[in-house]
């Protein structure tokens, strides 16, 4: 290991701790699909909820963490955590070598590319890995889910049942 916590150039150790960061306001079946794929690929998958003081979320960080824990408890290698500040600093702190992100459609690509390249500039030892959720979730986002809930539309198949219940009581 080099001093910064990442494997040094001539060290061949492969780190298989990945961080899946996001707002998760709330977790959707699309996120869950990616977590399921990710936990098969990495020894440890840390789902990290950003504590963003600028955004006005529907759910508090504690509520989002609660829901994530509930819907991921079947996977031993998945951990739910909270982070604030730079993602690369958090990755360094957690000794993670990979950032996992989902790309649903080409429209996600520009933002994801910018973020991945900026993170690479900030920390060249950190790799971003993109995975594709099932195509049936390609239209799904937390924003759309919040809107449907607020307008009283059906949420079946979009979010886990426990999240649906929480959404219903939040907007009622
Ligand atoms: O699910 P989201 O809201 O698209 O996730 C965005 C997230 C949390 C991955 C991104 O905003 C982030 O990493 N924020 C932390 C601050 C940071 O490191 N910014 C520089 C990266 S370009």
Written description of the protein model:
The protein is an alpha/beta fold and 172 residues long. Helices cover 40% and strands 17% of the residues. The chain has helices at 29-41, 61-72, 87-93, 106-122, 142-150, 161-171; strands at 17-22, 44-50, 78-83, 98-102, 127-131. A five-stranded parallel beta sheet has the order 3-2-1-4-5, sandwiched between helices. The protein is globular. The protein starts with 16 loop residues before the first strand and ends with a helix. The relative contact order is 0.20. 4'-phosphopantetheine binds next to strand 1 and helix 4. The site of 4'-phosphopantetheine (PNS) has 9 residues, from strand 1 and helix 4.
Outline:
The protein is α/β, with parallel strands linked by helices and 172 residues long. Helix content is 40%, strand content 17%.
What's the SSE blueprint?
Layout (H helix, E strand, L loop, with lengths): L16 E6 L6 H13 L2 E7 L10 H12 L5 E6 L3 H7 L4 E5 L3 H17 L4 E5 L10 H9 L10 H11 L1
Question: Which key phrases capture this entry?
Answer:
40% helix, 172 residues, globular, single chain, 6 helices, alpha/beta
Run of helices and strands: EHEHEHEHEHH
CA distance, first residue to last residue? 52 Å
Structural class comes to: alpha/beta
The tally of beta strands, per DSSP, is: 5
What's the multimeric state?
Answer: single chain
Give me the number of helical elements: 6
- Identify every distinct bound molecule in the structure, by name, code or SMILES: 4'-phosphopantetheine
Strand order of the largest sheet: 3-2-1-4-5
The gyration radius over C-alpha positions equals 16 Å
Helix content range:
40-55%
Shape: globular
Task: Give average pLDDT, whole number.
Answer: 92
Query: Largest sheet, described in full?
Result: 5 strands, parallel
β-sheet strand percentage: 15-25%
Q: Which parts are unreliable, with pLDDT below 50 for 5 consecutive residues or more?
A: none
């Amino acid at each position: 290991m080099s001093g910064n916590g990442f494997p040094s150039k001539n060290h061949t150790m492969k780190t298989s701790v990945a961080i899946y960061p996001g707002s998760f306001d709330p977790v959707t079946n699309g996120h869950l699909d990616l977590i399921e794929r990710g936990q098969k690929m990495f020894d440890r998958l840390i789902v990290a909820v950003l504590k963003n003081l600028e955004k006005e979320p529907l759910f508090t960080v504690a509520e989002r963490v609660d829901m994530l824990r509930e819907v991921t408890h079947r996977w031993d290698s998945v951990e739910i955590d909270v982070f604030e500040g730079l993602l690369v600093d958090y990755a360094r702190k957690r000794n993670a070598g990979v950032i996992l992100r989902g790309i649903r459609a080409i429209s996600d690509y520009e933002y994801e590319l910018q973020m991945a390249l900026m993170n690479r500039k900030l920390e060249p030892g950190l790799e971003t890995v993109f995975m594709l959720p099932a195509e049936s979730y390609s239209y799904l986002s937390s924003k759309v889910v919040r809107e449907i809930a607020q307008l009283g539309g059906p949420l079946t198949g979009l979010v886990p049942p426990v999240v649906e219940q929480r959404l219903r009581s939040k907007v009622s």
